[in-house]
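Self-study notes.
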Amino acid sequence: MTIDIRQFYDTFFEEADELLIEMERQLLALDPAAPDVEALHAIFRAAHSIKGGAATFGFQHMTELTHVLESILDRARTGALALREDMVDAFLETKDVLNAQIDAYRHEQPIDTETLAYMVERLQRIAGEPATADVLVPVAPAPTLAVPAAPASPQLATVAAAAATTGAMLDIRLKDIADSDCELLIAELGHLGEVLNHARTGTDSQVRLATACSPDDIVAVCCFIIDAEQIAITPVAIAVPEAQPVAAAPAAVLEPAPAYTDAAPATPTHAAVPTAPARERPASQSPAHAESSSIRVGIEKVDQLINLVGELVITQAMLAQTATSLDGVAHERLLNGLSQLTRNARDLQESVMSIRMMPMDYVFSRFPRLVRDLAHKLGKQVELVTAGQSTELDKGLIERIIDPLNHLVRNSLDHGLESPDERRAAGKDPVGRLFLSAAHQGGNIVIEVGDDGRGLDHEKILRKARAQGMALPDTLSEDDIAQLIFAPGFSTADAVTDVSGRGVGMDVVRQNIKSMGGYVEVRSQRGRGTTIRIVLPLTLAILDGMSVKVGNEIFILPLSCVSESLQPRQEDLKSVPGRGALLQVRNEYVPLVPLSARFDIVPTIPRPEDGIVVILEAEGRKIALQVDELVGQQQVVVKNLETNYRRVPGISGATILGDGSVALIIDVGMLMREPRQAAFGHSVLPEHAVNSDQASPNTLERARAAGEAGQGAVRIAA
């Protein structure tokens, strides 16, 4: 039976990625002056496991590089080689090269052999080893031994040959394994040594193997097919009777190893290499039927499941809406069933949504390396402090937040934190601190990037802005000035470098965050530091909302932005030239925004004091939104309006209500910015410019029609 081993490539790539991440984490935490022995062991094991898998699949160049790395790490962990800072730098650079190789193998692209040769030569140089032109590690079958004529006992001959060849024999128990997997594993074990015996009992297999590989090598190979808990390995002592000694046999002669091939060999092999002492795996310590604690599922399957649950929630809402007209006594059982369905649908929805949630550690874990490398490049001393790594965010958002955070971290390191000499002169610790944190706040996640550096120079920002031709009023608050750093092409850097100065990064940050339904706040104090605060919804697929009515239209307000609702009094309404209408809420004046005027709808209740005002709070500001009436609070499934129509200013999406009609979801962030646009004369920043494509009644009608026409095809924005 021929089995294509390429079906296991993806498993190897994923596990290699995880091992490289762990290797980098351990290296960044390593103190070269006093290295932690356990950390060195962990780094060595990661390199060793990657090499074992790469050799098994015939990935020549990766095997070569990890072999050199592993050899140096082995000397370091045993104390034969003193660790230095430049070694750690080289190990980290090797990790980057291995990542590039994995990507190349994954996408079947050529390997950069020049970089490989440079990296091998560098590792050998820093370790004090003579550089070699070719450091290929043989990925070949176990060496073939030329032995004399067999002794009298054939069984003893086999044992003697195995002992002379390998000096080790192992009993391997493979538990709860399918027949097809068993056949593949037996073939693989044959490449690691000589299979002396194989017995199959039920779903278990017992294999006796003469091999030069350690138990760790064998487990590393087998784990690409089964779990480690399904493998039990016991060393077997090799006893040779005194009456038939084999010690006098002629010296063994090894056949030359075959040359490398970068394509996966028809009979994949594993190189025998020095390893750490083998860990004992007594069979009694392993459960008979070990189960994995997790499974790997393609993200497209998860998205499909979320979409189906979203449709289920909509159907449940429609049934609930229909049931309101039924007699409670005559249809008691039906209504009770619908009530139970509602609870179950809500629980199912929350459970399914949690599948897409990932911890922020997925993002934060990549920044220690960035901070370390960039701090060295800039000549600064930086301590990275992180908090809230376990805070979860939707996978669709967590991958999109990486690039904005990368810009913010680089900006803090380059512009925010001072050099050690500057910090000493200012009476500060020469080691600057960079903060990364994440926390839940209502229905949002708040991510902060802060530093204890020099803070924003508002006067310099204003000078730069005016020099670039921005028309600014004379009375700008510090918050308004801070927002100028997000303008396209704006930079306070005196010179353009490969780190910053082009005025692109912060504009990208704001646009990306805005596209995710979030917003950015800036808090800065001169000489004390700057904090950039990002507020994002936990997910783009589900929204807790408040339904409001204006005229004959229903709109959804994100509940996380709703502070309170009230009916204003005439004496609390003020009109200020240049700022429009204001509403006094306790001791604060808040801009009054009639939702009917924003979308050119004829209201049922035109006078504010006769209707309802909803106080919305977002982006550190408040507005009073005038509506005709409050309809209720509900959880809605967000539909992407742009998929079926186009982007509508002031609208962030749409949803299908229980009666089958489409309601549009208000973009609260845009409403927050519009009162400021009027105050600044539409000229502060391109971000604050009024969009000429206002949402007319025809626009809303077309948007609603597009949503209704695509009810069966519109997918959840995720």
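Second protein, same conventions, sequence then structure:
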Amino acid sequence: MKCLIRFITRNAAGGSECHDRVVEAPAITMGRATDQVLHLKDKRVRLEHAAIESRNGDICIATSALAGVTVNGKSQREARLKVGDVIEVGANIIRVIAAPDGVDFAISFELREDASSEHLASKWSAPTPGIGGWSKRRLSWTLAGAVLLFGFLLPWVSVQGFLQAGPVHNAHSSIASQCGDCHVTPFRRVPDSACVECHTVARHVVEPRHAVLGEVRCATCHLEHNEPPQLVNQHQALCADCHADLPEGSELQRAADFLDDHPAFKVSLYMPIELDDGSLDWQVEHLALADAVGNERSNLKFNHMAHLEADGIMTPEGNRVITCGECHEPEPGGAGMLPVSMDDHCSDCHSLAFDPDDPTRTVPHGDPEAVLQALVEYYSARLLGEDPDAADRRLRRPGQKLTRADRDRAAAQARAQALEIAGDLFERRACVNCHEVTVVEGDMPWQVLPVRLTDEFFPHTRFSHAAHDTEVTSCDSCHGASTSEVATDLLIPDIGSCRECHGSGFARRNSGTQLPSTCVACHGFHFDVNEDYR
């Protein structure tokens, strides 16, 4: 809001002098305090007496003072203002005048002509010759000397580095003695340029979502010289002050506290889409967790419950109890999980061997055409005499040269045998157990739907599996995998599950078993998100 204030003063000759000042502020505050926009010179006025602000297109004045303010001769606590209105606060007169171009509204400010010095001066402002026999000059120098002695000299002697505001965080210990690296200009705030000199900041949320924050300094959220040392401001109000009262039309949902004022979780899922040429592609959809349950579309078939039998399952090595950690391994640092692969986690039990006479020979995993090609090459080698273990099946004897007809016959026979074995692998005992397989026409008779597992369900939050690996928690306590029979189950805990341990950002609201959880415990201000999830 931009306001023009016209200050009117009276000179000794009885004339008036004016000077204008343009103020741009959310509200025009007035009172005796020196930080008020309009400084009122009457001791009957409160330090923060009233404020003029814009409300729904109208200019209003409001005050919390019991006496209120006088608007057009009537005492009021709140009033809507228009051009010509006269506001009286003690000996101060404020008139609403026509606003020139470029400003939202305008006022004039002057003192009443009959203003009494009794109201404008306090008992401390009268000149005094001295106190207790001391002249003012002698008293001033004595007090200045005391400040210098107790505020500077003694601390300098007794405390090394007394000008340091507090301890330096361990992350900055290497430059702890180099104050000038951060404090570029002495006794001035640390500029952002000093921070980005060393720190490369990832994608900044301020643009465009937090554009309302305007010029936000790094030091607004990152506080150095704290006791105990803490670089990130953890206070709940840092985020909740704005997210508790979002502007109309905002795409975000209200969130003021994790325990009792936070929306239900949303997840990001890879969903398959069919392109015009019939092939599949993947796109990320952001869904409310309640809507996403049962809608996981990775094209994978998997039964968690069958693999997590408490008594174990039969494997080539005998009965074996399988735990979650055998397949789901934390990545370095423990935040996420490493990918699950056929070769590393499944092949011990689910073999891709195809010939009982050669149980160590397997087909490759992942490419149906490569599977068929490997089978054709394998049986061609056996028929053409290139496999020393297939002496009884080879068509060519040592020293014998095959005719073109023999080679064509061998190729046809090898492909026929490869197709027979491939049909068994794809349709009955291997691929079909985990994948969606359909029979199609063409040189490659089988189509296996591609699999795409979602690896980041909450790309805009921080979560560490390592931090939750405790004696009182288990994988199943959050994910419930031991009761899941199909891969379409979305084994992501809802907000109620998290609230069993994580409570309000305000510790006093929590029970004895809940951890205080502020916004920044899970949400960052700048982050680098996988492009697929934007």
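Instructor comment on the second fold: The chain has four domains: 2-119, 170-233, 266-340+453-493, 346-448.
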